[in-house]
């Protein structure tokens, strides 16, 4: 003889947990984006001379919300992606005019912004061979820093439901 015992209460509890998963995931994504990811993006420009607007793009698939953080700012994307060696020529003047010294406000793979910028004597040139610069890879650094926090956000939201 085989005795089969059914734990209906246990099954119902487990099913209720499964139903909670999408809600917990959506709340965790929202908090993670607002409290963990956005501040890291904003930290990359704290000492910049112009403001950069970071945007959030929400999408839904299979009842799960995903949020993409990005900016359309040309300078931020250029610094994040880097630039190859190139020649610069004047467009609306006979000469380029720029200061002779420059200290970058960011570093490769670093989330932050430090003092720096242009300084030194003013120089006039008909063209300049710009040496280019390494990509700062802000998105990659931010993902590496923020990704481990998502699991804890999900656990916290799941337990709160």
Task: Provide a descriptive summary of the structure in words.
The strands form three sheets. The chain has a two-stranded antiparallel ribbon. β1 and β2 form a beta hairpin. It contains three helices and six strands; from the N terminus they run αββαββββα. It is elongated and about 65 Å long. By secondary structure, it is α+β, with helices and mostly antiparallel strands. The chain has helices spanning 8-43, 74-81, 138-160, and strands spanning 55-61, 64-70, 86-88, 96-103, 117-125, 128-130. It has one domain.
SS field, number of helical segments: 3
Distance between the termini: 42 Å
Report the sheet with the most strands, covering strand number, pairing sense and barrel closure.
2 strands, antiparallel
**What would you report as the Rg, rounded to the nearest angstrom?**
25 Å
- Write down the overall geometry: elongated
Oligomeric status: single chain
Instruction: Tell me the number of strands.
Output: 6
Sheet with most strands: strand arrangement: 1-2
Number of domains: 1
* Contiguous runs where pLDDT drops below 50 for at least 5 residues: 1-6
Q: List the helices and strands in order.
A: HEEHEEEEH
| Secondary-structure class | alpha+beta
Helix content: 40-55%
């Amino acid at each position: 003889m085989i005795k089969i015992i059914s734990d209906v209460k246990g099954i119902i509890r487990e099913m209720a947990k499964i139903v909670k998963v999408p809600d917990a995931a959506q709340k965790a994504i929202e908090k993670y984006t607002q409290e963990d990811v956005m501040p890291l993006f904003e930290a990359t420009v704290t000492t910049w001379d112009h403001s950069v607007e970071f945007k959030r793009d929400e999408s839904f698939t299979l009842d799960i919300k995903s949020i993409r953080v990005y900016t359309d700012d040309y300078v931020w994307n250029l610094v994040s992606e880097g630039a190859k060696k190139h020649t610069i020529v004047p467009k609306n003047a006979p000469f380029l005019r720029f200061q002779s010294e420059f200290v970058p406000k960011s570093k490769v793979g670093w989330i932050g912004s430090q003092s720096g910028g242009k300084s030194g004597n003013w120089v006039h040139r008909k063209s300049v061979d710009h040496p280019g610069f390494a990509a700062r890879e802000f998105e990659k650094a931010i993902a590496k820093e923020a990704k481990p926090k998502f699991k804890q956000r999900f656990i916290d939201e799941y337990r709160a439901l």
